[in-house]
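Q: How do we represent a protein-ligand complex in a form that can be generated token by token?
A: Start from the inputs.
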Amino acid sequence: MKITSAEFIISNSDVKKCPNEPLPEYAFIGRSNVGKSSLINMLTGQKKLAKTSARPGKTQLINHFKINQNWYLVDLPGYGYAKVSKTTKATFQKFITEYFEKREQLVCGFVLIDIRLEAQKIDLEFITYLGESEIPFCIIFTKADKIGKVKAQQNVAAYRKKLLATGWEEMPQYFITSSLNTEGKDELLTFIDEINESFHSNKLL
Ligand code: GTP
Ligand code: MG
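Then emit the structure tokens for the protein with magnesium ion bound:
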């Protein structure tokens, strides 16, 4: 799939105020600084569409980007950022949870994981939460440019082992990506395109 248009529509912290068109959407979630906003820019080919920063905690709201006039990418705040206050953390948590539980347009969540790191408790907890809530999701490993291909495969294998040990029967569908060199872009867009097709032909909503 080619992205021919990508535009920012709205930011907010209230799920009820998100766009109410019956269009499929894909939300990016993960720890602060894992590369959610950068991935949105990489996929759309627009360097400044979503705001990014080397400092964690940049994205603070639910941000809707309309793509090709018929589906949405959603940028969310990161979880697990130690430096935000308890109150801010609780507020983020509340609207992120509300988003995942109430947003009917959400067809797939993308949980971003830094491919260099060992499995983190907070990510495993979030993945378990999605599984228990029966919310469809995939894993996206980010920053693959920072390690070699062999190491990347080893780390994915270790992640799979960890998930199986925490009760998953199989590794969820996953993608290996780099926002720096566009690795994984075509695979991810093809995946989205296939869901969009079945969404529009079956009218899943
Ligand atoms: P929050 O909005 O704070 O939750 O962070 P985020 O997950 O949106 O991360 P963001 O996209 O802002 O990126 C964080 C930092 O990681 C920035 O300095 C990016 O340039 C860098 N980064 C993101 N993706 C990649 C990647 O694929 N490769 C490399 N080398 N750096 C990346
Ligand atoms: Mg961000």
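Helices lie at 36-44, 86-102, 121-132, 149-165, 185-202. The chain has a mean pLDDT of 93.
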